[in-house]
């Protein structure tokens, strides 16, 4: 079952989230036609490899051609046209930048998985809450549904009452005119009959007056219910949705879709529109017939003003930013915009009225403090075709910001750096209907404008801090006096930074270590501990020369580019203090190791620490290799580094000390599926042609050189005399060295007769010197015995160095 098929089985609120993932740059119809194929490709790899991305781009075009052929056979002209148009759009958008396409598809598939997981979790929660609901627990959404249905029902009831009232008034008017006509006719009726008719008209008038009062009272009650319901929609539901949107923007759970909210808003708006028409009808009836103390005359203006105010308030509140400003190049980092780089933003009107289609022209404006020019089309008409669910929407896809030089003033008067200056985009439109003009305006969440991509991490930190602690989008002076954050909130936000770009957030142990870094070892576990903004983003952390957030940012980049699979599999402990690390390893088998992030690298680095058996009954020894940065991991994958890592002492045989990933997973079981496959040399096609290029192939591995006391003490490492060297060279050729030594070396490890080689020691000495001569190792640093970080080197041609046995 494809992921796409599973998505289509979800409720509408989740389907709306899926709709939001796709636009014209990569339309949903392609996702539909090529569902299986798209899910089978490695888009994550393509997003980081231009050649692979180009290959997949051309394969995708080929898949579209195949789909077009199927539509051709079916004589489906419309689908032929659509798929041909989609192909042209893909070529126009991604022919020169296939990596961008791969990034979009990878992000869409990833977000789809999040939506599926969210839906499954929601279903489990609903199953668990059935008993509570059945026991009479209040259900907010059901209450709102009931109130909205009551409004619609009451409007229908008033509509029927007005029709009845109109019939009663017509009948009364007819009777009055008939009586007047008969009154002018001589001998048409007796005095008694006339009084009887007058009495009858009097009863009709009283009934008419009661009905008018009844209708007016029902409209008053209807507007009261509408006002309370509308307040709940605007002040509760909409505010909660906006808060969830803030949370989703900084990596939190996906925001619930707007469909249900739009349905409520639309029903209330339609009801108010009907009330406006009903009041006009009452006014028409009043113009035809009125009297002293007429309830329509008495309350007409109040009801009209109240209805107008409610409708205006509802329409103004329904104008929202459905998708906050975001650069397509950084979909996980919305609200940080770089000058000269395109960004997108989507507006939506939660009131779905057909008469508003193509009547609302939206204009984009920048805030009035620090001036920027908005490049691109900054006006657009809202229409129902812009969205997939028929709502009124307008999406701006090609906007850019360009700073005006030497004009305007800074957003804030305080000494704020660029990445702390908050701005906002405003969107304006006007609703014009007969007798009704409503100005609509909404603003984006605060944005940070940068001019260099190096400012992105600091800008994103500002967005995190604001949306974690403030719900007022107009508070652009927030960083003049930024509040402290509780660790309980900040820990969630930090975990979201990992779960939003990987499949795994931070667990309690990892967060505990980070809490200690920010709050100190004594307060690290306090959920109520307060972290100042400067401590999070500006001050150097502990004794390092960089702040906490830039350290986290470097690790995130390292994971995304080089360690994603290992992180997702849970192989990396990551955030752990050295004390806690040793406490975990001390009782483990020798060779047990764990992976953690370096605390001393701003750019992000990873190391491994292993435990060795104690010597002479002493405490176990722990050794940590010098951390690997993205520079080294770009040359060799981390699983290959772990597989090939060697430790050597003097001229002993290099050995790999890594055996078990903590707690007790055999190394190859944990990392084997990620090892690089050996490359097979292609067979030459021309047997008479040149063979090779004359070079010996090399392999990049990591080696640490340590003091001989770390391993068994070597013996008989005296150099050979020239005579010994000549004798060994005469007896054993270089190609036979490994076989001879293996034959000699094995018996030396067990009791029993030794092989009859008179040159046993000189041979070993020769082999040691030969291997030492052939190895070309450059050791960047030399470690010490005991607890230390070992030097490493990953660029040499490795030949085994053999350990002497005496």
UniProtKB/TrEMBL annotation:
<keyword id="KW-0238">DNA-binding</keyword>
<dbReference type="InterPro" id="IPR035859">
    <property type="entry name" value="STAT1_SH2"/>
</dbReference>
<keyword id="KW-0805">Transcription regulation</keyword>
<dbReference type="Pfam" id="PF02865">
    <property type="entry name" value="STAT_int"/>
</dbReference>
<dbReference type="InterPro" id="IPR013801">
    <property type="entry name" value="STAT_TF_DNA-bd"/>
</dbReference>
<feature type="domain" description="SH2">
    <location>
        <begin position="567"/>
        <end position="664"/>
    </location>
</feature>
<keyword id="KW-0597">Phosphoprotein</keyword>
<protein>
    <recommendedName>
        <fullName>Signal transducer and activator of transcription</fullName>
    </recommendedName>
</protein>
<feature type="coiled-coil region">
    <location>
        <begin position="141"/>
        <end position="168"/>
    </location>
</feature>
<keyword id="KW-1017">Isopeptide bond</keyword>
<keyword id="KW-0727">SH2 domain</keyword>
<keyword id="KW-0488">Methylation</keyword>
<dbReference type="InterPro" id="IPR001217">
    <property type="entry name" value="STAT"/>
</dbReference>
<dbReference type="GO" id="GO:0007259">
    <property type="term" value="P:cell surface receptor signaling pathway via JAK-STAT"/>
</dbReference>
<dbReference type="Pfam" id="PF01017">
    <property type="entry name" value="STAT_alpha"/>
</dbReference>
<keyword id="KW-0007">Acetylation</keyword>
<keyword id="KW-0963">Cytoplasm</keyword>
<dbReference type="InterPro" id="IPR008967">
    <property type="entry name" value="p53-like_TF_DNA-bd_sf"/>
</dbReference>
<dbReference type="GO" id="GO:0060337">
    <property type="term" value="P:type I interferon-mediated signaling pathway"/>
</dbReference>
<dbReference type="Pfam" id="PF21354">
    <property type="entry name" value="STAT_linker"/>
</dbReference>
<dbReference type="GO" id="GO:0000981">
    <property type="term" value="F:DNA-binding transcription factor activity, RNA polymerase II-specific"/>
</dbReference>
<comment type="similarity">
    <text>Belongs to the transcription factor STAT family.</text>
</comment>
<keyword id="KW-0175">Coiled coil</keyword>
<keyword id="KW-0539">Nucleus</keyword>
<dbReference type="InterPro" id="IPR036860">
    <property type="entry name" value="SH2_dom_sf"/>
</dbReference>
<dbReference type="Pfam" id="PF12162">
    <property type="entry name" value="STAT1_TAZ2bind"/>
</dbReference>
<dbReference type="GO" id="GO:0051093">
    <property type="term" value="P:negative regulation of developmental process"/>
</dbReference>
<dbReference type="Pfam" id="PF00017">
    <property type="entry name" value="SH2"/>
</dbReference>
<dbReference type="InterPro" id="IPR036535">
    <property type="entry name" value="STAT_N_sf"/>
</dbReference>
<dbReference type="InterPro" id="IPR022752">
    <property type="entry name" value="STAT1_TAZ2-bd_C"/>
</dbReference>
<dbReference type="GO" id="GO:0060333">
    <property type="term" value="P:type II interferon-mediated signaling pathway"/>
</dbReference>
<dbReference type="InterPro" id="IPR038295">
    <property type="entry name" value="STAT1_C_sf"/>
</dbReference>
<dbReference type="InterPro" id="IPR015988">
    <property type="entry name" value="STAT_TF_CC"/>
</dbReference>
<dbReference type="GO" id="GO:0005654">
    <property type="term" value="C:nucleoplasm"/>
</dbReference>
<dbReference type="InterPro" id="IPR012345">
    <property type="entry name" value="STAT_TF_DNA-bd_N"/>
</dbReference>
<dbReference type="Pfam" id="PF02864">
    <property type="entry name" value="STAT_bind"/>
</dbReference>
<keyword id="KW-0010">Activator</keyword>
<dbReference type="InterPro" id="IPR000980">
    <property type="entry name" value="SH2"/>
</dbReference>
<dbReference type="GO" id="GO:0005737">
    <property type="term" value="C:cytoplasm"/>
</dbReference>
<dbReference type="InterPro" id="IPR013800">
    <property type="entry name" value="STAT_TF_alpha"/>
</dbReference>
<dbReference type="InterPro" id="IPR013799">
    <property type="entry name" value="STAT_TF_prot_interaction"/>
</dbReference>
<keyword id="KW-0832">Ubl conjugation</keyword>
């Amino acid at each position: 079952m494809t992921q796409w098929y599973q998505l289509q089985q979800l409720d509408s609120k989740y389907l709306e989230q899926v709709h939001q993932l796709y636009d014209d740059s990569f339309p949903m119809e392609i996702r539909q036609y090529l569902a299986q194929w798209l899910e089978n490709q490695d888009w994550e790899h393509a997003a980081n490899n231009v050649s692979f991305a180009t290959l997949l781009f051309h394969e995708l075009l080929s898949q579209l051609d195949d789909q077009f052929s199927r539509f051709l056979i079916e004589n489906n002209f419309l689908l032929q046209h659509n798929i041909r148009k989609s192909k042209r759009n893909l070529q126009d958008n991604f022919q020169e930048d296939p990596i961008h396409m791969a990034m979009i598809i990878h992000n869409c598939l990833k977000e789809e998985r999040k939506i599926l997981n969210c839906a499954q979790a929601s279903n489990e929660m609903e199953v668990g809450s059935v008993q509570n609901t059945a026991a009479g627990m209040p259900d907010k959404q059901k209450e709102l549904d009931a109130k909205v249905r009551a409004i619609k029902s009451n409007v229908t009831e008033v509509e029927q009452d007005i029709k009845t009232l109109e019939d009663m008034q017509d009948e009364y008017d007819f009777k009055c005119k008939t009586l007047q006509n008969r009154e002018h006719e001589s001998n048409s009726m007796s005095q008694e009959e006339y009084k009887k008719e007058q009495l009858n008209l009097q009863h009709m008038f009283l009934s008419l007056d009661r009905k008018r009062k009844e209708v007016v009272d029902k409209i008053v009650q209807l507007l009261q219910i509408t006002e309370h319901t509308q307040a709940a929609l605007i002040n509760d539901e909409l505010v909660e949705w906006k808060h969830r949107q803030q949370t989703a923007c900084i990596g939190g759970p996906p925001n619930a879709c707007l469909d249900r909210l739009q349905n409520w808003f639309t029903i209330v708006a339609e009801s108010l529109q009907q009330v406006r028409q009903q009041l006009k009808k009452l006014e028409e009836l009043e113009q035809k017939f009125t009297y002293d103390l007429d309830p329509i005359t008495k309350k007409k203006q109040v009801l009209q003003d109240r209805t107008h105010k409610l409708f205006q308030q509802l329409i103004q509140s329904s104008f929202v930013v459905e998708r906050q400003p975001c650069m397509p190049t950084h979909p996980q980092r919305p609200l940080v915009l770089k000058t000269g780089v395109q960004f997108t933003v989507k507006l939506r009107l939660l009131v779905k009225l057909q008469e508003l289609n193509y009547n609302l022209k939206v204009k984009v404006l920048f805030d009035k403090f620090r001036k920027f020019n908005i490049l691109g089309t900054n006006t657009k008409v809202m229409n129902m075709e812009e969205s997939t669910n028929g709502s009124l929407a307008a999406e701006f896809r090609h906007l850019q910001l360009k700073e005006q030089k030497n004009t305007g003033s800074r957003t804030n008067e305080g000494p704020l750096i660029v990445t702390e200056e908050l701005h906002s985009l405003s969107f304006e439109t006007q609703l014009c209907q007969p007798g009704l003009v409503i100005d609509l305006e909404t603003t984006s969440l605060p944005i940070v404008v940068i001019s260099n991509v190096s400012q992105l991490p600091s800008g994103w930190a500002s967005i995190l801090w604001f949306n974690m602690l403030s719900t007022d989008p107009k508070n652009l002076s927030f960083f003049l006096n930024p509040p402290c954050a509780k660790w309980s909130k900040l820990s969630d936000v930090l975990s979201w930074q990992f779960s939003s770009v990987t499949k795994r957030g931070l667990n309690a142990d990892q967060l505990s270590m980070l809490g200690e870094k920010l709050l100190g070892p004594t307060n690290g576990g306090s959920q109520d501990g307060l972290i100042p903004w400067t401590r999070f983003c500006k001050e150097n952390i502990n004794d390092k020369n960089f702040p906490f957030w830039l350290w986290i940012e470097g690790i995130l980049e390292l994971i995304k580019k080089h360690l994603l699979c290992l992180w997702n599999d849970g192989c990396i402990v990551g955030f752990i203090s050295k004390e806690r690390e040793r406490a975990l390893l001390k009782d483990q088998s020798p060779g047990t190791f764990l992976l953690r992030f370096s605390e001393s690298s701003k750019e992000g680095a990873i190391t491994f620490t292993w435990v060795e058996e104690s010597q002479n009954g002493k405490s176990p020894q722990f050794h940590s290799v010098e951390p690997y940065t993205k520079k080294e991991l770009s040359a060799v994958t981390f699983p290959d580094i772990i597989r090939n890592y060697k430790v050597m002492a003097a001229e002993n045989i290099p050995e790999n000390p890594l055996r078990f990933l903590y707690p007790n997973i055999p190394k190859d079981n944990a990392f084997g599926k990620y090892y690089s496959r050996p490359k097979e040399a292609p067979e030459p096609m021309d047997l008479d042609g040149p063979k090779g290029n004359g070079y010996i192939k090399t392999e990049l591995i990591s080696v640490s050189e340590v003091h001989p006391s770390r391993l068994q003490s070597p013996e008989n490492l005296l150099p050979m005399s020239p005579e010994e060297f000549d004798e060994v060279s005469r007896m054993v050729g270089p190609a036979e060295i490994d076989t001879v030594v293996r034959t000699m070396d094995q018996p030396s490890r067990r009791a029993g007769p030794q092989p009859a080689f008179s040159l046993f020691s000189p041979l070993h000495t020769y082999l040691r010197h030969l291997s030492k001569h052939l190895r070309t190792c450059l050791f960047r640093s030399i470690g010490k015995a005991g607890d230390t970080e070992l030097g490493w080197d990953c660029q040499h041609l490795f030949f085994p160095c053999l350990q002497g046995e005496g």
